[in-house]
Amino acid sequence: MNLLAGLTLDTPTLVFSIGALALFMSVFAFNTAYALPASDMGLRSWGLAMLTLCGGFMLLFLRGHAPLALTYVLANSLVLLSSVICVNAHARLLEMATPWRTLAAVNALGVLSTAPVYLGWLPRGASIFTLSLTLAVNFAISARMIWRHRTERESPAGLLAAGILGSMAVTSVLRGLHGLGGDHGTVQLNPHLLPQIGSLMLGALFTVGSSLAFLAMVNERQRHELEARARRDGLTGLLTRTAFFEAAQAYLAEPGGKHFGVVMMDIDWFKKINDRHGHAAGDTTLSQLGRLIAQHTRLSDLAGRYGGEEFCLLLKDCTMAEAQRVAQELVGEAARQNVRLPDGGTLRFTLSAGYAQRQGLHESLEQVINRADQALYDAKHAGRNRAMAALPTPLPATLPESRSAAAPSGRTEEAGGSQAA
Question: What integer pLDDT is reported at residue 9 of this predicted model?
Answer without folding.
Answer: 65
